[in-house]
Specification:
6-stranded mixed beta sheet, Metallo-beta-lactamase, Chain A, about 290 residues, about 40% helix, alpha/beta, 2 domains, 11 helices
């Protein structure tokens, strides 16, 4: 049984999810959310009839704080953490990760994400591409899916894929949009990862932002379209000589207008911004185009 845990990030429903899968060897957690929502995670786990101490295995899509920020707290309670090889050093010693995040979020850092402590290397389980992790009656296959982050994994269980951020952000009946923060955005890798997901012919996707998707071809086609749209929009403004400070408010207005045109109300736009801050996509896509220009 799969439980969708709504972490209530910044007071918004359907912004960040974790997923609890019941197995014969105890519950498995996919994603942890940030430490700032740890008490909400604990409440959601309790609502499924379990304690945090019952969770012996945590599978991370990647190490960004909205997906993995509370992983250390699960490790302190005894959980093993499964993640991409490139992400493991930052979980063993998160100092650089947190320093970089603090430079971006400044005084908002603690409120948004909370603290992060190191995880003992013995509890970090590096998973290679296509490696299978067997827990109870379930087998989870690690699909290395770069594009959003070079250390990204989509987890395949049967005909279900837990997609992290590689399949985008879609809240309720709104459209899918691509989260494009720095430093690893790569459009070629992202499109290849979409191809990989399609090749698996999944019956359902579970998005960390937020929940299940069954119209998979339509969803991923829409993701490709808007990823290209955002990238070209940013490229045009950047090549015209505009600064990131000039581009950002225009892009925020542009993306809000796109959501509104798809029927998303103001509250919904705020939830999209909580799950996927549009100003971060400016930084990420400019960085991508700068790398392409070298």
């Amino acid at each position: 049984m799969i439980h969708i845990l709504d972490l209530g990030f910044q007071g918004y429903s359907h912004a960040i999810a974790a997923f609890l899968i019941e197995t014969q060897d105890g519950p498995v957690l996919i994603e942890t959310g940030p430490y700032s929502t740890f008490s909400n995670l604990e409440r959601e786990v309790s609502g499924c009839g379990f304690r945090m101490e019952d969770i012996n295995n945590v599978l991370l899509s990647h190490i960004h704080l909205d997906h993995a920020g509370a992983s250390w707290a699960l490790a302190e309670k005894g959980a093993n953490i499964y993640l991409h090889p490139f992400g493991a050093p930052h979980m063993e010693n998160p100092a650089r990760l947190m320093e970089s995040a603090r430079m971006i979020y400044k005084e908002e850092m603690d409120r948004l994400w909370g603290e992060m402590k190191n995880i003992p290397p013995g509890q970090l389980n590096i998973t290679e591409d296509r490696e299978e992790v067997k827990i109870g009656e379930h087998t989870f296959r690690s699909l290395h899916t770069p594009g959003h982050a070079r250390h990204h994994i989509a987890w395949l269980m049967g005909d279900i894929i837990f997609t992290g951020d590689i399949a985008g952000v879609k809240i309720d009946r709104g459209p899918v949009v691509p989260p494009c923060p720095p430093p690893d955005i790569n459009l070629e890798d992202w499109n290849n990862s979409i191809d990989l997901i399609l090749k698996e012919k999944p019956g359902k996707l579970y998005l960390t932002h937020f929940g299940p998707v069954e119209s998979i071809d339509e969803h991923l086609s829409g993701l490709r379209e808007i990823l290209n749209d955002w990238a070209c929009w940013i490229k045009d403004k950047w090549e015209s000589g505009m600064s990131p400070e000039e581009i950002t408010p225009l892009f925020m207005k542009y993306t809000a207008s796109q959501l509104a045109d798809k029927g998303v109300d103001q509250k919904g736009i705020e939830r999209y911004e909580a799950a996927n801050p549009s100003w971060m996509s400016v930084a990420g896509l400019i960085r991508y185009w700068k790398k392409k220009a070298i």
